[in-house]
Amino acid sequence: MKPPTAWHEQRERGSVLGIRFTAWLYRRIGRGAARLLLYPIVLYFYLTGRSARAASREYLRRLHATPEGARALGGPPGARQVFRHFLEFASTILDRVGIWLGRREDFELTIHGREILDEIAARGRGGLILGAHLGSFEAMRLVATLRSPISVCVLMHTQNAVRINDLFRRLGMNDDVKVRVIQVEPGSFAHVMEVKAAIARGEVVTVLADRIHPSEAQRTTQVEFLGGKVSLPQGPFLLGSALGCPILFMVGLRSGDRRYDIHVERLAERLEAPRGERAAALERFCQVYAERLAHYCTVAPFQWFNFYDFWLPGGVHADG
Q1: What digits encode the pLDDT tens for the residues 150-175?
Q2: Apex CA 28: angle with CA 22 and CA 30, to 5°?
Q3: DSSP letters spanning 143-196
Q4: Is the distance from CB of 184 to CB of 156 less than 8 angstroms?
Q5: How far is CA 280 from CA 92, 118, 246, in A?
Q6: Which of 252, 153, 251, 249 is nearest to 205 (CA)?
Q7: For residue range 228-248, what is the model confidence (pLDDT) as tens digits?
Q8: Which of 1, 85, 170, 266 is in the most buried spot, having the most CB atoms within 10 Å?
Q9: Whether the Cβ atoms of residue 147 and residue 260 lie closer than 8 Å to each other
Q10: pTM for this model (two decimals)
Q11: How far apart are CA 67 and CA 292, in angstroms?
């Protein structure tokens, strides 16, 4: 069995081509017709994506083993629930294209915890937002574009940053909806200095903290998540400790057609990780993050989009 870090070895089959095609449909025939075409597209990926189906079923099975997850799912997961999981992912991509193309007025946001962002904006010094592959990252970014005075930077590994920026350029998207990316280059600390400068300017820096990049494989922390053991990267949490700024948790959950609930929580005013107690402090904080992630998985059970073997081999299964 491959470890969870093997996600980077899996190709996102046709992802860039698929997004370009979806954008073309969005522009040419409109959102409604493009949405109808999602069903045959999702069916194709569902039928041909054996490993993704297995990963979806395992996640849903673990979620169903929790009391909150069982209530959210309504019954044991089967083929229908797995297909719905795939369809939610495709629907989020369709919304992502709409946001990228500058159709911001099409989306309705409800922000829970807006006062936390307002407080950071009033201080004039930024913070670090820990996100996850749960819901829509672009919906979170719309908060800054539409409702918040805070500027947002996205911390992203170089390969992904180049790919996403190239996609933006090819699609000819509006400048005011492009992601401002801070690139992480393995072996370099330039991004840390850039992040510090952004925080000092009162901006917030966002990073997705639920996947381990190959360059981070030796710096991980094991935590409990949905009844099993998983590894999380230490990098985002070490960065939060070094910055000495507020650490937030934020997700954008799809609540209906072009409607999103944005949830903002304060995880810590600052992450204290003294050198002699660093491992224990990181484990505690990573566990807090994992628990908030698990909570929001029960709020939106079909919107966690890690379609690979996420749990460590030999971890305790939620079903016992």
Answers
A1: 678 888 876 655 565 566 556 655 44
A2: 75
A3: IIIII-S--EEEEEEHHHHHHHHHHHHHHT--GGGS--EEEE-TT--HHHHHHH
A4: yes
A5: 36, 32, 20
A6: 153
A7: 999 999 999 999 988 989 999
A8: 85
A9: no
A10: 0.87
A11: 16
